[in-house]
């Protein structure tokens, strides 16, 4: 299993969310504010199987391109989204490492 943390430019947020849900991906949207990649971004948490990671990445790229074409926006891949991929099989290790009694 993989967990993708995706910081999405708000221009793409609604379209990307609908497209991913239509493809069967389950998304959690985090409401936040802060300075990471400046304002105007939304964070998605997306869990998927290892075999679906490539399909997820392709779908996200295609959805952004589709919106740019529809709205006649200039293509700017740098500001679409940034994603981080975490291997969830390490989750048990994270919990045991940071939740041990008496450890700072």
Automatic annotation (TrEMBL):
Gene3D superfamilies per UniProt: 3.30.70.120
Lineage top rank: taxon: Bacteria
InterPro entries xrefs: CdAMP_rec, N-reg_PII-like_a/b, N-reg_PII/ATP_PRibTrfase_C
Pfam families: CdAMP_rec
Listed name of the protein: Uncharacterized protein YaaQ
Species the sequence originates in: Geomicrobium halophilum
Classification lineage: Bacteria, Bacillati, Bacillota, Bacilli, Bacillales
